[in-house]
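Open question from group meeting: does this chain pack into something compact, or does most of it stay loose? Before anyone orders reagents, we agreed to write out a predicted structure and look at it together. Recording both the input and the output here so the notebook holds the full record.
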Amino acid sequence: MSPRPKIGLRLTTILEAAGEIADKQGIDEVSLANLAKNLEIRPPSLYNHFDGLPDLRKKLAIFGLDRLYKVVADAVVGVSGTEAVLAISKAYVSFAREHPGIYEATLMAPDPEDNEVQQAGAKIVNLSLQVLRDFNLEGDRALHAVRGLRSILHGFSALEQKGGFKLTLDLDQSLEFILEAFIAGLSNKW
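Structure tokens returned:
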């Protein structure tokens, strides 16, 4: 049975389907052919939305960054200081756990210097700067702190996804311990 074209297929629907493939099968399985099969359409129909696989990956990266931003922004509503750093961090790691393929896509944009990718990522950076504002960091020091936090969160998420934590220690407790050490460092006037 050949796929039937679907009239009016929205980009969001297509990216959700691509994200589902990435989450369940891995980012390497996100191809125009697999996506078309999943959506029950002919592969050429996807060229109405994408200029090939690199464009699909770019749009999936932006889609993932936008979803990650929403999750972390929702987590920090009504909290500040240490509580906000913990909230944004736990939301970030939870997103990576729940959407491993989409999360990986956020790191694999074909051209990280692309303006659209930069704008999507900048929202997360700006939110992180706002969260860290309570620690009286300014200028480059604030950006260094954001890089440090992102390094902790990405490193933790990547190691967890690759099975790098084999000890029976509770992962959430380990994450909180690391974050509390980071926050204590921010709180000290070094």
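Observations to bring back to the group:
DSSP finds eight helices and no strands in the chain.
The two ends are 67 Å apart (CA to CA).
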